[in-house]
Amino acid sequence: MAEEPRFLLRLYFGAGRQFGPGKARLLALIEAEGSISAAGRGMGMSYKRAWSLVEQMNADFAEPLVDSTRGGPRGGGARLTGTGREILAAYGRLEAQVRSAGGAEIAAIEARLKP
Amino acid sequence: MAEEPRFLLRLYFGAGRQFGPGKARLLALIEAEGSISAAGRGMGMSYKRAWSLVEQMNADFAEPLVDSTRGGPRGGGARLTGTGREILAAYGRLEAQVRSAGGAEIAAIEARLKP
């Protein structure tokens, strides 16, 4: 999807809590697909793993990031909460800032690589 | 050493080439210790692993980052080349830029965590 990522940025908040590109992409896909399992599939991730990440995010934050109904006749649905959209947007801005503020340094390192 | 890292930033240059905090710290310790094995020990890394990372960096870049003499009566010594110092410095500036340019977004995400 889109261009190959040029960097990975993962945030650490202590007590094992982290937020990075995997969770951000899962949130973005949940918003797009309306389903945790469909979002997980989009990342080649098991249903169980996708749910576990969502539960972890919902537990880490003061308010849940994802609002979901598990199972049921229509297989359940999911969407981001207001907090979920804010976190995803803040992380996206952060990545954009690294790209712009750090672009020159990244290019300087790249320029020294073997051609 | 110093404060707990609040984020991890790893750069990807394609063809399996990456540069991140592990290699940066290894370079910094090589500069401080004058020895690849001592630098590896400082990171709880085996001699073999530390050498392998140095060889990888030296192969990835157009000029070596580390200049070393392996073994010998004094156990060999190592120091950063000019290119090595430049790469380490550029990566350090990049981290500082994330910290400053991205500080507000990181704080915004952190503020939403469960207290």
Outline of this structure?
The structure is a homodimer of 115-residue chains. Chain A has 115 residues and is an alpha+beta fold. The first copy, chain A, is 55% helix and 16% strand.
Task: Tell me what the structure shows.
2 copies of one chain form a homodimer. The first copy, chain A, has 115 residues and is an alpha+beta fold. Chain A is 55% helix and 16% strand. Chain A is built from 5 helices and 4 strands; from the N terminus they run ββαααββαα. In chain A, the strands form 2 sheets. A two-stranded antiparallel sheet of chain A has the order 1-2. In chain A, strands 3-4 form a two-stranded antiparallel ribbon. In chain A, strand 3 (66-70) and strand 4 (76-80) form a beta hairpin. In chain A, helix 1 (21-33) packs across helix 2 and helix 2 (36-42) packs across helix 3 (47-60). The longest helix of chain A is centred in the C-terminal third of the chain and has 20 residues, at 82-101. Chain A is elongated, with a radius of gyration of 16 Å. The two termini of chain A are 26 Å apart. The model of chain A has no long low-confidence stretch (mean pLDDT 91). Chain A binds chain B through residues 4-14, 17, 19-20, 59-63, 83, 86-87, 90-91, 93-94, 97-98, 100-102, 105-106, 108-110, 112-115, and chain B through 4-14, 17, 19-20, 59-63, 83, 86-87, 90-91, 93-94, 97-98, 100-102, 105-106, 108-110, 112-115. Strand 1 of chain A pairs antiparallel with strand 1 of chain B.
